[in-house]
Design a protein that fits this description.
Blueprint (H helix, E strand, L loop, with lengths): L15 H13 L6 E2 L14 H11 L14 H12 L11 E4 L1 H11 L6 E6 L3 H11 L5 E5 L5 E2 L1 H9 L4 E7 L11 H13 L3 E5 L15 H4 L5 E6 L12 E6 L5 H16 L5 H11 L4 H23 L5 E2 L8 E6 L15 H12 L6 H13 L1 E2 L1 E2 L9 E5 L5 H20 L3
Parallel strand pairs: 1-12, 3-4, 3-6, 6-7, 7-8
Antiparallel strand pairs: 2-9, 4-5, 8-9, 10-11, 11-14, 13-14
Helix pairs in contact: 2-10, 3-10, 4-5, 11-14, 12-13, 13-14
Length: about 425
């Protein structure tokens, strides 16, 4: 071409969560059942929404106004409803003007980083949800800047690591936290959130909290919202319905702006995000209309409680099957619906293998391994797991992390399938880490 087309940041765009699916389908085409643990979609796991939620949506479809545009920022009544939900937490107070809808949080995440100065950086957790880390790195034309989540301390953030990286990097303008966390399933204690807020205050930063899993907690845990701890620090909460209802196909997420008038720069930044949505006219209207009707329904709290309790039961089953394996670091989960299992230092070696009796599967595996000469060792294990056991997981090195491990979900409704899946994982981890090549 006459001029170079791609920016330096384009190389940072990757999404192994779905890339692994292509290889899983190759194994499936050989006639094998695949145990899908790669993506957090409850509907893909055959989750059925209750009829009363479906009826609510069907009723909205009978109103012709549902099919038209809405306000650029989102349906006013829904934004008022969400502002009031936030204000009931007795933290940072907002109005409907502080709520901005997007076509899912993927859209919101992209916009969040798009309008920052390229030299301005938002430091995020590691391991990190790859949509955040890829978008931030793409905007900056550089690798992501991260702080560590510690697998040897319940996956809590390493506050010293966060503090020192911010202190010595003046380009950092914001801190991202994901709470409850994807991919680790950790729920941040209130005192840790307060410490992060204090760091932001000291260095005049804004906060971003991805809270898509805020209401998905179990086994006695409670997630504190950013609004409850942020005090007068500027910040943005990112929320949605894809996981909570769940309705991932709705592509419906929103931002809530806190303390936007505390900083002229931050206020202008929020206004730019609003203007970007005005150019697009508006986000999808139907799910916005459904939100207050569903969430204010008297049946909703009991429904949510049952959903969370089911995830909690699955987390305990997974703990039962994996927690005692000596070659891994295993943390029980209390929020979201993922768990990240880490291989202990030095356990993975480049000559380890699993038994694969089908020559066709072995041939596919060899093709995958040949495509990437410097393949991370956890990715190599993930490929062996898929070819040998038919279990599709995601390597944790794909989540902007130097750790070696893999992420699983807690979404399988059928307990027999759940136990079979994680028994296969258990067998694979033990065989692989004991193999001498």
């Amino acid at each position: 071409m006459r001029q170079r087309l791609l920016s330096e940041g384009a190389s940072e765009l990757s999404y192994e969560i779905r890339e692994i699916v292509k290889k899983a389908h190759q194994i499936q085409d050989l006639g094998y059942t695949i145990f899908w643990e790669n993506i957090g979609d409850p509907v893909q796991k055959h989750y059925q929404l209750p009829d009363w939620i479906k009826d609510t949506v069907v009723e909205l479809l009978q109103d012709n106004a549902t099919f038209g545009y809405c306000d650029s920022k989102g349906v006013l009544e829904t934004r008022q409803f969400l502002a009031e939900l936030n204000n009931q937490r007795n933290g940072a107070q907002i109005t409907s003007d502080d709520v901005l809808f997007f076509n899912g949080l993927g859209d919101a995440i992209s916009k969040l980083y798009q309008y920052l100065v390229p030299t301005s950086r938002v430091i995020g957790p590691s391991p990190s949800y790859s949509t955040h880390s890829s978008a931030e790195a793409s905007h900056a034309n550089h690798h992501p800047i991260t702080y560590n989540l510690d697998p040897n301390n319940n996956w809590f953030p390493d506050l010293d690591d966060l503090y020192m990286k911010i202190k010595y990097n003046p380009n950092i303008v914001g801190i991202l936290l994901i709470n409850p966390d994807n991919p680790t399933g950790v729920v941040y204690p209130k005192e840790i959130l307060e410490a992060i807020v204090e760091i932001a205050r000291v260095y005049d930063l804004f906060l971003v909290a991805d809270e898509i899993y805020l209401n998905i907690t179990y086994n006695g845990a409670k997630a504190f919202a950013l609004a409850e701890v942020i005090d007068d620090v500027p910040g943005i909460s990112m929320k949605g319905i894809s996981k909570e209802l769940p309705w991932p196909g709705a592509r419906c997420g929103w931002m809530e702006f806190y303390n936007r008038h505390q900083s002229e720069d931050f206020d202008q930044y929020c206004s730019t995000l609003e203007n970007a949505k005005m150019i697009e006219v508006c986000s999808t209207k139907l799910p916005q209309l459904a939100i207050p009707k569903i969430m204010s329904d008297a049946r909703y709290p009991e429904y949510r409680q049952g959903f969370n309790e089911a995830i909690g039961r699955r987390s305990r089953i997974i703990s039962e099957l994996l927690a005692d394996i000596p070659s891994i670091t295993f943390n029980p989960t209390y929020g979201a619906f993922y768990n990240t299992i880490i291989f202990q230092d030095g356990v993975l070696q480049p000559n380890q293998q699993l038994t694969i009796e089908d020559e066709r599967a072995m041939e596919l595996l060899q093709q995958w391994l040949a495509q990437e000469l410097d393949m991370a060792l956890d990715k190599r294990f993930v490929y062996y797991l898929l070819a040998a056991k038919g279990v599709c997981v995601v390597p944790i090195s794909s989540f902007c992390s130097d750790l070696q491990g893999f992420r699983v979900t807690l979404l399988e409704n059928d307990e027999d399938i759940l136990r079979e899946t994680f028994t296969r994982i258990r067998e694979a981890v033990i065989e692989f880490t004991q193999a001498d090549g």
